[in-house]
Design goal:
The protein is an all-alpha fold. The chain contains seven helices and no strands.
Length: 153
Amino acid sequence: MGFLKGLSKAKVALALIVILALLQFIRIDKNNPTSDPTKDFLAISNASPEISSLVKAACYDCHSNHTAYPWYTDIAPVSFWIRNHIKGARKQLNFSEWGDYPAGKREHLSGESVEAVETKWMPLNSYVWLHPEAKLSEDDRTKLQDFFKGLAP
C-alpha cells in the first residue's frame, strides 16, 4: 500500500469516480431465455390463482425465465451483482424449466422450497426491501408450504 502514500484523497476519489463512470458502459444482458409455457411450474402443478400470484411475486423474478429488470439494473456495479444473483438462482431452481426436471429432482426442490419458505430464507430480505409485493405474511407462508408439501408423491 506504499504506492498510495503519494496520492491525495482527492485523487483517489477522482479515480474511483472515473472507474465507476467507465463501468456504466458495460451493460448486463437483460434478455430472458425463451421457455415453453407447458413446462412451467405453475402450469404443471395446477396452482390456484392465489398460489400462482404468491409464487410469481416472491420467486419468479430470480427463479424463472420471466425476470423483470428494474431501473437500478442499469447502474454498475449493482447490475453485475444482480445478474450474477439471477444466474445462480436459475441454476439452483428455475420454475420455467420445471417440466424438464426428473421426478426425483422435482420432489427434492419442492422439499427445499418448503424449507426456504418456512425458515424465511426466501424471498431474500434484500429482494423484499425493493419489492414490497414479495413480502409474505405468515398465512402466505403457510399456504405456500402446504402447496409445496402437496407436490410430493
